[in-house]
Amino acid sequence: MIWFVLISYDIVHDRRRAKVATRLENDARRVQFSVFESLMTKQQIEELQGRLRPLIDTTTDSIRIYRLTRDAVTEI
Questions:
Q1: Whole-model pTM?
Q2: Burial of 29 (0-12, 13-18, 19+ CB in 10 A)
Q3: Are 6 and 72 in contact (CB under 8 A)?
Q4: Which of 63, 66, 73, 74 could make a disulfide contact with 6, Cβ separation 3.0–4.6 Å?
Q5: How many Cα atoms occupy the beta-carbon half-sphere of 29 within 13 Å?
Q6: What's the rounded Cα separation, in Å, for the pair 46 and 4?
Q7: Contact status, residue 73 vs residue 42, Cβ threshold 8 Å
Q8: CA atoms of 49 and 44, how far apart (whole Å)
Q9: pLDDT tens over the chain, length 76 residues
Q10: By three-state DSSP, how is residue 30 classified?
Q11: How far apart are CA 76 and CA 54, in angstroms?
């Protein structure tokens, strides 16, 4: 199944934030400063999580990945 994926982040330090943004720009489309979206399979989502996890400090930073069906997404 292909999911519509919404990814947002809150990263404290500039250097880590830049690394995360660069990584996400390779896999998704930026729609706001810290929000990206893409169409991905479950495997692609898991691979992205694996690439992002080492880039952050889990005690201060957060990355949220929301999976939505295509039918759940509307654009105004």
A1: 0.89
A2: exposed
A3: no
A4: 66
A5: 6
A6: 14
A7: no
A8: 9
A9: 889 999 999 999 999 999 999 999 999 999 999 999 999 999 999 999 999 999 999 999 999 999 997 777 777 6
A10: strand
A11: 35
